[in-house]
Amino acid sequence: MKNAIVFGATGYVGLALVKKLLSENINVLAIGRKDDRYFFEKLNFNSDKVRYLQINQPLEIFLNDLLRYENFKQDCVLYHLAWSGVDRLTNGGIRDQIRNLYISSEVLSFANEFGCKKFINASSQEEAIFKKYLKSNKWKNEKYTSSPLYYAGSKFANVELVKLLSYLKKIDYVNTRFSIVLDESLDGVSFVASTFKKLQNYEEIPEVKNTQPCEIVLLDELVDAYYKIGLYGKHGIDYYLGQGCPNTLMNYFLNFKSIINSEDNLRQDSFSEDILDIFNPKSLELDTGFVFNKTYKSLAKEAK
Questions:
Q1: What is the superkingdom listed in this entry's lineage (predicted)?
Q2: Engineered SS bond to 246: which of 8, 45, 175, 215, CB 3.0-4.6 Å?
């Protein structure tokens, strides 16, 4: 990988990935919907290897214009991280979420025409949890509780669509999944980050509706993994990004609180083999050599 194109470069993970790629001497063509000033202020990384382009016109026209950046074509990998709801990733109605499928299909078609050697799709663990929910009989009488239904369903549909299009376009395709990502400063705007901040201030745990298994990974390791996947990720593989040790969200909050209070009673739920299987990171280690080592506990210890 000599060049990389990052769609969704102004997002939480996208900005961190751009920094990681630049630190590894990769030329980066960063794409986002925010203006140049926003991107470079947030990036805060001095490099002449990055070019930022704002999507400020219809996507088809923008992608057609993007084809002229031929100096990024050699040994190029495209990372597709772009996803949006109304004002955050998961909210909005079915139309708000399903429009992301159109964007994915257009970006993949561009990657093929541009000559990218690999298309890396950043999905969510919701995709795998929702798929399992559909395949079981639970959908007949149990409400889906892991995340907003339209978000989870759209993530699942998006992966199936991109998988089909990659076959039709004959482009190497890699799917990636992760649950929850946090940085050591808790700068993200997620419910988990804001709750951890409240716990640092000794506030109470808010209501938690999500009862499904999940896993917290740290942002620096996540983008390290994406860099390795850009180098070594194999066509058609679905990589889970994490240690493979899920817990429930409530347990994460209770444990975070316990660590801050120097208590030892950490809670860990046990899960069935079919659940643990969708949190299995073995393919990532086998193909890229990368292993996640950090946990949320380091965040709590920093707060003590």
A1: Bacteria
A2: 215
What topology is assigned to 3-180+218-243+273-293 in CATH? Rossmann fold (3.40.50)
Tell me the domain boundaries of the chain: 3-180+218-243+273-293
Cα angle vertex 5, ends 93, 178, to 5°? 50
Both tokens of 67, joined, read 């084809």
- For the full predicted model, state whether its pTM sits above 0.90: yes
Contact by Cβ (8 Å): 38, 10: yes
Phi and psi torsions of 110, nearest 5°: -60, -45
Q: Determine the 3-state secondary structure of 173 from DSSP.
A: strand
Return the closest-CA partner of residue 241 out of 221, 213, 269: 221
The tokens for 146 are 């892991």
By the 8 A CB rule, do 40 and 17 touch? Answer: no
